[in-house]
Amino acid sequence: MTEVAGPSVLVRATAGELARKRAGVAVAAIAGEGTAEAAAGRAAPDTVFEIGSLTKVFTSLLLARLVVAGKAALDEPVTDLLGAPVPERDGERITLRHLATHTSGLPRLPKGMFLPALLNPRKPDPYADCTAEFLLDGLTRTKLGATPGKRFRYSNLGAGLLGLALARRAGTTYERLVAEQISRPLGLTHTGLDDTGLTQGHDRRSRPVAPWHLADLAGAGGLRSTVADLAVFARAQLDADSTELAEAIRLTHTAEGHRMNRFTTMRLGWLELRRDGDSQLWHNGATGGFTSFLAIRPTRHTAVAALSDTARSVDRPAADLLRALSTP
């Protein structure tokens, strides 16, 4: 791994800044051919964190891999993969593209979760009971908040159903699909659903909290990873042609998505921010005791990943680091 002086200094400074209010943090950055990693507090670059909704980028890459292999289609109805009824509205069916771009019209949470979450927001491991049976039964009682494809409505339920549907189409589990289609080809050694090596998470008041397990909703936020693995994943986004995932990676970056406003488009799993002819792809994540951030700027060949073992956002310092690295 090549380390360059400029990014190293900036990465260490960002890690130090984040560690002031967090038990442990890890940060990685790419600038051109150089990669720098730093950790502070109780963490190291190979410390395992929950990455929360950053998982959605991996789930959408799985979708792209199956599409490229001819095993699925972006505009295929999800009911065909789940083998179960899925709600419709105005004669429109929910497709895989809708799930990946949060335009399905599905609510944020599965049926039966909202009220318990409202009454007991500190419940440990709140998604642990989200089995396929629970999710599919809830769908029979779910009404869509918008016609599929018409409106952006962020949905953990939709992203989790996408992961479940892809696993069923592939005849395997979500965990194995990630391992076979992403982790092994890219050489990610600590990215998966396994708790092995997972560091202790903390709430905003620095109190220890239980890890989260998302059962069959794992595609929405169940992965664990290290900043070292995320640096490899980010490098693959920037240098896609050097991997066997090249066509799938490009598809997640460029497939028709949903225009949210004049600056932002929801691509397959990635939020794309475009200003002054430049493009940034990013996503973040949070669980009960962790936060995460990953962003790339392909035209500048830069990227930043940040992980925290405390439920405090890392977005602003991480985004500032990316901006500093990307400034000519």
From TrEMBL:
Residues 19-324 form the Beta-lactamase-related domain. Pfam families: Beta-lactamase. It comes from the Bacteria. SUPFAM superfamilies: beta-lactamase/transpeptidase-like. This is Beta-lactamase-related domain-containing protein. The lineage of its organism: Bacteria, Bacillati, Actinomycetota, Actinomycetes, Streptosporangiales.
